[in-house]
């Protein structure tokens, strides 16, 4: 089913729990770049084009070892950018919908920008499957733990692609610290903090009787979010709405695709919901 806003509204109205699944396309309307194409990555980070490196080559532990200064600059620059950006209105729309349902909401996201928390979502109801820049870990994961990035307030030299403030270190071994994000070819990623979120999500799903899954901006290149959304909607026999301006196709006839951007689609659905309430 395609571009049927009224059908989407009916799925939302009858649901007693909202599962929000989000990929990079959720953040684009907040002014954040999508790195999944080389063009998008190079437009955001021209120095890596000169080095002939794409996102999948820069976002690796090996890049820290071979290009330490540039790796820390990339981490710090993204962290500053995400902290300075304001989550778009669509976050508040989703939060309001979820809070009006019997079992509330839960978020499953591959985004590492921390914007669901910044928008006021309950951190206990956000499972960041690939980690977040707002946490740090030992580069070698020496103790199997992570910690908040709040005290890391980097100062960057964008002209020379380096961090000029002190670089983070592991409080246990004194070695390098890095973002607690699952990178490519990342054998040292620490997922301990997120295991509790996964368990909480599974417990929440067991309580929900009439689920609606709203997936936003999840692409095919790394289909973690898409696969989870489809699998969960099938298992729970729930409603499923995929919002994506380019990859909106769905595998089942009663699943719904909206070929729209995140904010555009959420505003359109919210307008219909408000009209229904006021009629």
Radius of gyration (CA) equals 19 Å
Helix/strand/pairing category:
alpha/beta
Shape: globular
Proportion of residues in β-strands: 15-25%
The parts where pLDDT drops under 50 for at least 5 residues are none
The first-to-last residue Cα distance is 27 Å
- Tell me the helix content: 25-40%
Instruction: Encode the helix/strand succession as letters.
Output: HEHHHHHHEHEEEEEEHEHEEH
Number of strands: 11
What does the main sheet amount to? 6 strands, parallel
Number of helices: 11
Task: Supply database-style keywords.
11 helices; 279 residues; alpha/beta; 39% helix; 11 strands; six-stranded parallel beta sheet
Characterize the structure shown.
By secondary structure, the protein is α/β, with parallel strands linked by helices. 39% of the residues lie in helices and 17% in strands. The chain has helices at residues 5-14, 38-44, 46-50, 55-58, 61-66, 68-84, 89-99, 115-118, 192-207, 224-236, 262-278; strands at 17-22, 105-109, 126-128, 131-138, 146-148, 156-157, 162-163, 177-181, 211-216, 239-243, 256-258. The strands form three sheets. The protein has a six-stranded parallel beta sheet with strand order 3-2-1-9-10-11, with helices on both faces. A three-stranded antiparallel beta sheet has the order 5-4-8. A hairpin with a 4-residue loop joins strand 6 (156-157) and strand 7. Helix 1 (5-14) crosses helix 11 and helix 7 (89-99) packs across helix 11 (262-278). The longest helix is centred in the first third of the chain and has 17 residues, at 68-84. The chain is globular, with a radius of gyration of 19 Å. It starts with a helix and ends with a helix. The model has no long low-confidence stretch (mean pLDDT 93).
């Amino acid at each position: 089913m395609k571009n049927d806003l009224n059908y989407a509204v009916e799925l939302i109205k009858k649901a007693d729990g909202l599962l929000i699944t989000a990929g990079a396309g959720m953040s684009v309307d907040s002014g954040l770049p999508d790195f999944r194409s080389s063009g998008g990555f190079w437009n955001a980070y021209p120095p890596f084009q000169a080095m002939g490196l794409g996102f999948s080559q820069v976002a690796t532990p090996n890049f820290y070892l071979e290009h330490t200064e540039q790796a820390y600059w990339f981490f710090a620059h993204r962290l500053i950018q995400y902290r300075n950006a304001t989550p778009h209105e669509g976050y508040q729309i989703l939060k309001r919908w979820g809070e009006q349902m019997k079992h509330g909401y839960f978020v499953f996201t591959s985004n590492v920008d921390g914007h669901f928390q910044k928008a006021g979502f309950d951190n206990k109801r956000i499972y960041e499957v690939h980690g977040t820049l707002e946490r740090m870990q030992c580069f070698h994961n020496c103790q199997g733990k992570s910690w908040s990035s709040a005290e890391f307030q980097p100062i960057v030299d964008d002209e020379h692609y380096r961090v000029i403030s002190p670089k983070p270190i592991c409080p246990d071994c004194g070695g390098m610290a890095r973002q607690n994000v699952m990178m490519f070819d990342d054998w040292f990623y620490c997922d301990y903090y997120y295991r509790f979120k996964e368990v909480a999500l599974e417990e929440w799903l067991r309580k929900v009787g009439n689920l609606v899954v709203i997936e936003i901006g999840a692409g095919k290149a790394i289909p973690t979010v898409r696969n989870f959304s489809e699998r969960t909607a099938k298992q729970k026999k729930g409603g499923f709405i995929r919002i994506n301006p380019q990859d909106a196709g769905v595998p089942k006839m009663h699943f719904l695709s909206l070929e729209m951007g995140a904010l555009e689609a959420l505003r359109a659905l919210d307008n219909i919901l408000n009209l229904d309430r006021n009629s």
